[in-house]
């Protein structure tokens, strides 16, 4: 008996098994992580950096910095009242 056909069959089977391993279950795609600072609001203020829109200043400000600069109480109510009023 010629060993060549048996070798060819074995090689074909091994190649088939090796290639079938490539068609296994797909690796799950992980959603991209949002970058820090990519959370801008409608006014362009970056909330994760502490910025909020102040209509009175027409700018993104950090409430605690505004409170210190304007000698306001450092409270959400004081920020809202100051920023809601016009100059």
Task: Please tell me about this protein's structure.
With 87 residues, this protein is mainly alpha-helical. It has a domain at 38-87. Helix content is 40%, strand content 7%. It has three helices and two strands, in the order αββαα. The protein has a two-stranded antiparallel ribbon with strand order 1-2. A hairpin with a 4-residue loop joins strand 1 (52-54) and strand 2 (59-61). The longest helix has 18 residues, at 3-20. The chain is rod-shaped. The model has no long low-confidence stretch (mean pLDDT 84).
Write the layout of secondary structure elements.
Elements: H1 3-20, E1 52-54, E2 59-61, H2 63-70, H3 76-84
Antiparallel strand pairs: 1-2
Quaternary organisation of the protein chains: single chain
Portion of residues in helices? Answer: 40-55%
Question: If you compute it from the alpha carbons, what radius of gyration comes out, rounded to the nearest whole angstrom?
Answer: 32 Å
Mean pLDDT: 84
- The number of strands is 2
Strand order of the largest sheet: 1-2
The helix-and-strand class reads mainly alpha
Strand content: 5-15%
What spatial form do the alpha-carbon principal axes imply?
rod-shaped
Tally of helical segments: 3
Low-confidence stretches: none
Task: List SSEs in N-to-C order.
Answer: HEEHH
State the end-to-end distance. 102 Å
Give a short account of the largest sheet. 2 strands, antiparallel
Signal peptide: 1-20
Keywords: Signal
Protein name: Lipoprotein
């Amino acid at each position: 008996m010629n060993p060549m056909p048996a070798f060819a069959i074995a090689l074909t089977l091994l190649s088939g098994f090796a290639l079938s391993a490539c068609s296994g279950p797909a690796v799950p795609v992980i959603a991209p992580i949002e970058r820090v600072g990519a959370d801008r609001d409608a006014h362009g203020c970056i909330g994760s950096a502490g910025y909020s829109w102040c209509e009175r200043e027409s700018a993104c400000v950090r409430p605690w910095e505004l409170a210190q600069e304007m000698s306001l109480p450092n409270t959400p109510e004081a920020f809202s009242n100051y920023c809601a009023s016009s100059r």
